[in-house]
């Protein structure tokens, strides 16, 4: 799958959210996702509108509990921008509880995430029951789930056998689990001799991407789009502060940065799919 185009891969996926994301990437020639971690709805919408033309996906309202002035109308506005700019919505909720609780968190409450977010994610730490809980809500709606198999932070515990077990859990639920938040390609990881993995195609969405710095003061570590897409075989680069920095209000500058990351990410993908 490493060398196949996003479009070729889209046609082989049965999960509607995976298909939508891969088709969007092909159509918009973008493997850039922007993560919009700001606290005011107004800033959030302005950034989404500015980067919308350049992204395949918005990681948003990432994380919905960050927004101070949340009102359900914000979801309608996000959906309107998703239609205007043609991007997929991923709520980075990082569910991590028992199946019954996550099903309620996913379907209900103020945010009703399953009703508007094409993709969401979960920590594998509770075991397969977290997938059962979330898929009872998300699968009938055509949603997709990513498992957090690895993290970008210094000292992350999601390594080794934990990561392998996460991939095994995904392999057993391929109708709903479409891939991972991880730092490298995961196809075949943790597979036994009896597993048939040749047609396996997990999407890998990767945070911890930056062109100008190597990290922040709180443990975040950045790699370049080239390292992530070409060398590690990931599919989507997730960029937050590298795109909007501290200048939430300078939408021209934000759009320029989004364009820059999109070009870098796409060039790495083209090199990957055309290399002999
Ligand atoms: P940044 O501003 O590009 O550092 O933001 C990265 C985003 O990705 C932010 O929303 C994090 O919560 C998210 N993230 C991450 O950085 N690393 C991880 O391993 C995971 C999520 Br999982």
Automatic annotation (TrEMBL):
Class of enzymatic activity (EC top level): lyase
Entry keywords, A to Z: Decarboxylase, Lyase, Pyrimidine biosynthesis
Protein name: Orotidine 5'-phosphate decarboxylase
Gene Ontology BP term (one): 'de novo' UMP biosynthetic process
Family the entry assigns: Belongs to the OMP decarboxylase family.
Active site per the UniProt annotation: 92 (for ompdecase activity), 94 (for ompdecase activity), 97 (for ompdecase activity)
Alphabetized InterPro entries for the sequence: Aldolase_TIM (IPR013785), OMPdecase (IPR014732), OMPdecase_AS (IPR018089), OMPdeCOase_dom (IPR001754), RibuloseP-bd_barrel (IPR011060)
Domain Orotidine 5'-phosphate decarboxylase residue range list: 31-254
Source organism: Armillaria gallica (Bulbous honey fungus)
Catalytic reaction(s) noted: orotidine 5'-phosphate + H(+) = UMP + CO2
MF (Gene Ontology): orotate phosphoribosyltransferase activity; orotidine-5'-phosphate decarboxylase activity
